[in-house]
Amino acid sequence: MRFSPKAKKSSKIREIVMNPVLCAVHFLKCSVWLRQQEILESVNTHRKTAVKACHASGKTFIAAIAPATTNALATARNVSGSVAFVSNR
Question: How many other β-carbons are positioned within 10 Å of the β-carbon of residue 77?
């Protein structure tokens, strides 16, 4: 079975839209690290995602682009972040 160029392009766009990592790379022109890719995929497939990581690992960046790259737009999810402060007194 042969597909027309228009059908191939439509199929490719559908594949990009359904994959949050490809969506970030192709539509938003972002480069995402491996850990950030895992976070995007988790946000796309799970109702809740918690990320424990060090400083400057890109959590805030991913929280900003996650609603635009995942299917979360259809389910209206809330993305929030917080910084934990531990005092050693």
Answer: 16
The parent domain of residue 63 ranges over 5-75
19 is a domain residue: yes
Residue 80 lies in a domain: no
In which element (H, E) is residue 69 found? helix 59-69
Q: Residue 88 is encoded by which pair of tokens?
A: 């050693």
Mean pLDDT rounded to a whole number for the chain = 77
What angle, rounded to 10 degrees, do the helices at 34-45 and 59-69 form? 40
Domain assignment present for residue 85? The answer is no
Sign of the alpha-carbon torsion through 26, 30, 33, 36: negative
Tell me the pLDDT tens digit for each residue of 2-37. 667 777 778 888 888 888 899 889 888 988 999 889
Looking at the chain, the whole-number percentage of residues with pLDDT higher than 90 is: 1
